[in-house]
Amino acid sequence: MRVRKSLGLALLTLALAGLLAACGGETPTATPTATPKPADNGGTTAATPTPEPAFDLAAQFKGKTIRIMANSNPGGGTDAQGRFMATFLSQYIPGNPRFIVSNNGNKDGEYDYAATRAPKDGTYWSWTSTPELERGHRDGAVKRSEFRFLWTQAPRNVQTLTYGSKYDCAWDASGSSEAFFSFADEIADVEAGGATILANVTYMEDLRVPIIYKAVASATTADVLLMWERGDINSTSRNSLWYQLPTTRTGWVADGTVRMVADMGFTPAQPNAESDPHCGQVRDKMTAEGIEKLNGFFNPSTYVGKSLWLPPGVDEELWVALGETLKATFSNPEVAKKMEDFTGQAMNEQMYYKEGQELTVITDPAYAKAISLIDAESARIREKYFGL
Question: How far apart are CA 154 and CA 70, in angstroms?
Fold first, then answer.
């Protein structure tokens, strides 16, 4: 299976760089590499140096256990994908370490632990639903760009899905006096001004589509499906659910029970096993002002999707060796087929360690420039939609 860097990803790189430049940011500094020392050979012509041996991952991980920590509650899509990867990764990592998956639904807590207390020997991997750049800009926390990016299956091409929709696309409800679309997100995300909440409200208001928003204790993929079936809500904006539905709820997309009513991602949504995307890019329907706000809120959480990270301070040679190993693993056609079958999403837009790190270095300061707007809009949305 051929792995490619998509046009959408290239455009996203330019968009992020443009956002930073527009805010007066500086060009990010590349990760420094060690400067080779000249050979001390008494002034004679230097012989060709012997290459340094590659980092010995087998010695590092033999007999060890690698913990994949999902920053979500059990039962959701992030949790399920992490557990699936753990079933086969051991055979591809030199030394064949054991893998276990744990959960920390307190996203800030997982971030802070990984940043300050997690082992730095390669045995702790954060498995995140979003990159959570915002945490690094509160309370003097470590910036996400100081972590070591490892891998993501695809950029987070987020779609709004609606259960039992009477509208073909979200913008068909423009100007309606009825708030048909109803969403729910976790209380912690509401209080923190989560990017998905900001994005949903921004584009719906820009399209003049009234919505209802609820704050709930847990809003994993499994929770959303249950809330749909109970009639508590009917809409959600997520990354992987579109691709998973043909497996988790066979027939729902095929018979129109669930429709994709808007695509918010920078990379276009791909067909799933039952349907092509129902509706196109929401930005094509929005005002210039609305697009600018949406990009400011959403760029930092969509430049990567579910992703693996090592803690800050991990040795660079260890990071590179693990990054190359995961690159070889996930570009292996057999592994790629496993992942595609499980997630329902193609593996042709993977992002590996160096590319992901470079994008994080660009995106982190760009996000910092948008914080004041995010804070102001979060306060307005909390009051208007949640009474907080």
Answer: 17
